Amino acid sequence: MTMFDKIALIGIGLIGSSIARAARRNGLAGSIAVGDASEAHCQKALALGICDSASMQVSQAVKDADLVVLCVPASANAEVAERMAAHLKPGAIISDVGSVKQSVIRDVGPLLPEGVHFVPGHPIAGTEFSGPEAGFADLFQGRWCILTPPTGTDEAATAKVKAFWESMGSMIEIMEPGHHDMVLAITSHLPHLIAYTIVGTAGNLEESLKGEVIRYSASGFRDFTRIAASDPIMWRDVFLNNRDAVLEMLQRFTEDLTALQRAIRWGEGQVLEDLFTRTRAIRKGIIDAKQDS
Amino acid sequence: MTMFDKIALIGIGLIGSSIARAARRNGLAGSIAVGDASEAHCQKALALGICDSASMQVSQAVKDADLVVLCVPASANAEVAERMAAHLKPGAIISDVGSVKQSVIRDVGPLLPEGVHFVPGHPIAGTEFSGPEAGFADLFQGRWCILTPPTGTDEAATAKVKAFWESMGSMIEIMEPGHHDMVLAITSHLPHLIAYTIVGTAGNLEESLKGEVIRYSASGFRDFTRIAASDPIMWRDVFLNNRDAVLEMLQRFTEDLTALQRAIRWGEGQVLEDLFTRTRAIRKGIIDAKQDS
Q: Which of A38, A247, B57, B258 suits B161 as a labelling partner, its CA being 20 to 30 A distant?
């Protein structure tokens, strides 16, 4: 069922192009406009048939749109907001898909004109691939999408964004932005940082070892390389924009790792066994919560 | 084709029971005997029909065996070797499947009688599940198996172990034991240690955050929980037995992580972007090497 006469997706990478596909398949939008600074991305999106129009001018893409979703790296939010602000339709809803919510509220909120509604969002979904070709309509199926409307946000606007994501298969949670950023720091940002680090550490090895790291990656390492293949710009921006929460979680992690290092050095097997038994139970919680199989 | 009249598998967990299934399916053994300290494991193995006999007495299991494969946690190797030594058939080949090779050579080698051949091995394959039910015949298909025969090992014995693993679908590499332990420290042992740590760090969070960690685990964390669900005893023994190599790699990792922490604190985006771009290339190497898809 058509929920918006026109939606505009600013940034047509993995997430933007997945929204386009899901919205089109489910008939959620009368028309879909794409705005993307890359001409190649615009042409690709048109060629894929996932949008009705595509423009390098964000002002053009957002014209008459009832819903505008920012799907760009966090560092681009402010510039996009500045360029589109004067061209937004009165009553339009603005949302986004970024992994950090306090910074987008800080960067975008003050630039929006009176009479439009800002409902920040974050779909917990993705892959390690990037670009318009990487998207697929089922990406959000059965996955959480967290909305973090600032205090005072129009409730009808929040309800519309909620219904939009539910129509793409997501389950919705409303959360305070600062709490969101702390939860994601431990569930997402720190795991990515650690994966990037260990893959980098392996990449710095002596040549005699490096080839073997790839060859024997099935022993555990390759799970980290998949995570560490995620979009470099997007992730640079996540760490720069969620600095305090990431540094807090990183500090806790480092303390725990140092304690394990000490247990290994001194041969304290019971310390290792106790932790390894406890972590198995957490995995069971995830299976029980149907977040993996 | 039958390669051994009788093989004995000591320890019938994930790896032992996978060998039993693969050997049986491919007719590699005239008969398969299981030795396992757990009565429940022995009964389970018999009930599953993956062996011809099962005993809690290792001396019984190895009797007349042409190939004995130790599939127990590293800390149990010495005791098993002591119990079986006097009962080994002259000319028998002894092998193992452990993740650390210098320690099994140190612990088992001196206990074996003259006239038997010791060819340590390590199949790079596994899952996070444990026990006789967890095994499957295809576990080794397309995966590497590293053999680390000590200097002076009978070449015919090494060739037989190589052919045995090849018949179960593995690709073989012969490696010096110390080199093996260093390669696995970075490709396997450190990734497991880090996964255990971060899952433990999350488990220590305030109650208000803990439930959400499970709920939003799809954002990266759940890949770590799968790794951190691996067998606690086996992994405790890996870290205790490959201490020096693990501590060396852990030190390198910590230095790299500290450098990233500093870059985040000081907002050095280029440092982050450079690393994240480099790690993407390493992932590509793994795909190209067909170690993941």
A: B57
Question: Tokens in use for A116?
Answer: 């439009």
Structure confidence at residue A293 as a pLDDT band (50, 70, 90): low
Q: What's the order of all strands across the beta sheet hosting B171-174?
A: B121-123, B144-147, B171-174
Bridge partners of A33, per DSSP, are: A8, A53
Task: Please say whether the beta carbons of A102 and A122 come within 8 A.
Answer: no
Extract the runs of DSSP E, i.e. beta strands, from chain A. 4-10, 29-35, 53-55, 67-70, 93-96, 117-118, 121-123, 144-147, 171-174
Alpha-carbon distance B36 to nearest alpha carbon in chain A (angstroms): 21
Arithmetic mean of pLDDT over chain A: 95
Q: Verify whether the Cβ–Cβ distance B233 to A273 is below 8 Å.
A: yes
Q: Which of B184, B190, B203 sits opposite A282 (nearest CB)?
A: B203
Distance from CA of B208 to the nearest CA of A (A): 10
ipTM: 0.91
- Which of A127, A249, A264 is most worth mutating to test chain B (most B CB atoms within 10 A of its CB)? A264
Binary contact (A279, B239; C-beta < 8 A): no
- Contact list in A for residue B240 (CB cut-off 8 A) is 264, 267, 269, 272
Selection from A282, A21, A10, A4 nearest residue A140 by Cα? A21
Contact B264/A253, CB-based, under 8 Å? no
Q: What is the pLDDT of residues B148-163, one digit of tens each?
A: 999 999 999 999 999 9
CA–CA separation, A13 vs A130, rounded Å? 6
Q: Which of B129, B264, B268, B284 to mutate to test the interface with A (most CBs of A within 10 A)?
A: B264
* Residue B219 confidence (pLDDT) above 80: no
Q: Locate the DSSP E strands across A43-139.
A: 53-55, 67-70, 93-96, 117-118, 121-123
Instruction: Find the angle CA(B113)-CA(B114)-CA(B117) to the nearest 5 degrees.
Output: 90
Q: Where are the domains of chain B?
A: 4-175, 179-288
Residues of chain A neighbouring B252 (CB-CB closer than 8 A): 201, 204
The CATH number for A4-175, chosen from 3.40.50.720, 1.10.730.10, 3.10.530.10, 1.10.3720.10, is: 3.40.50.720
Contact B254 A250 (CB under 8 A): no
> Which CATH architecture best describes the domain A179-288?
Orthogonal Bundle (1.10)
Q: Supply the pLDDT for residue A1.
A: 74
Q: Which amino acid is at A290?
A: K
DSSP per residue, A207-220? HHHHHHHHHTGGGT
| Secondary structure letter of residue A136 according to DSSP | -
For residue A52, give how far its alpha carbon lies from the nearest alpha carbon of chain B (Å): 31
> A33-52 pLDDT, tens per residue?
999 999 999 999 999 999 99
Cα–Cα distances in Å, from A101 out to A84, A93, A109, A242? Answer: 20, 17, 11, 9
Q: Measure the CA–CA gap between B117 and B94, rounded to whole angstroms.
A: 6
